[in-house]
Amino acid sequence: FFRRAFELDPSNVLALYCAREIYQSLGNFETAAKLLDLEARAEPDGERRIALYRELGHARSEQLGDIEGAVVALKRALALDPSNMDVMGELALLLLRRAPLGGGDMDRQRAADLLYQVASTAGGETALGYCEAALDAWPEHEASLGLFEGICRETQRLDLLADRYQRLLGPLAESPNLADLYRRIGNLALERGDLDEAIGYYQALEPLGIPEDHEILIDLLRRANREDDLADALASDLGAPPGESSGEPDLLDPEALP
């Protein structure tokens, strides 16, 4: 009866709903999901359509193991309300599940973008959690790191920031952003009063031959009264500017840092 009803009138949402409930109760999840898709398309109310597409995403991913179909459903939901934080979070999680199945870095970056958008709207402790999730998804997500830094400094949670920096060392070991991370760690060490740690990270930057970093190191060594290291630094030849030397200079292995 219900199949006949929605075949005669594809916009009959009630018939679609009743039919899919029957198939769902019988364990025919594939047919139930197809009917749910038709119901979502036919639903005139915007909020209800979003809820149906979210339900479809869950059915596709959890009952059918169809991550691709689930992603499509949540993308449709997000298109209806691009600022819906719940949909963004759910889509990000699905993209991270799809990434090792073929989505790769593109899915990880998109997931990080979505998580950052949620963090930007949420604020406070919730924002910190979403920033961390974004950085776990894509360690080079600069916007998430910047937001995370700002909140940590506003709330005087420098230990949390230091821990995040340390957790980024491994993922960024082969990244061009590693040098900037060293500077961040060194500057944070200064904020926390650990002069020796700051020196260690600026020493690690020496192979790059960047004059500004070298000058900071000289100043730090003077402040720490490390006369032997200061003499070595003053006597060192920084070599050719970056890009003019033969080969790419290597930074110190993060595991060798203090």
Provide a descriptive summary of the structure in words.
This protein is 71% helix and 0% strand. It contains 14 helices and no strands. Helix 3 runs antiparallel to helix 4 and helix 5 packs antiparallel against helix 6. With 258 residues, the chain is mainly α. The protein starts with a helix and ends in a 23-residue tail after the last helix.
Give the SSE map:
Blueprint: H1 2-8, H2 13-25, H3 29-42, H4 46-63, H5 67-80, H6 85-98, H7 104-122, H8 124-137, H9 142-154, H10 158-169, H11 178-191, H12 195-204, H13 211-223, H14 227-235
Low-confidence stretches: 238-248
Strand/helix succession: HHHHHHHHHHHHHH
Instruction: Give the % helix.
Output: over 70%
Distance between the amino and carboxyl termini: 74 Å
Mean pLDDT over the full residue set: 89
* Structural class label: mainly alpha
Count of runs of 4 or more consecutive helical residues: 14
What is the total tally of β strands?
Answer: 0
Nearest-angstrom radius of gyration? 26 Å
Overall outline: elongated
Estimate what percentage of residues fall within beta strands: under 5%
Sheet bearing the most strands, described?
none
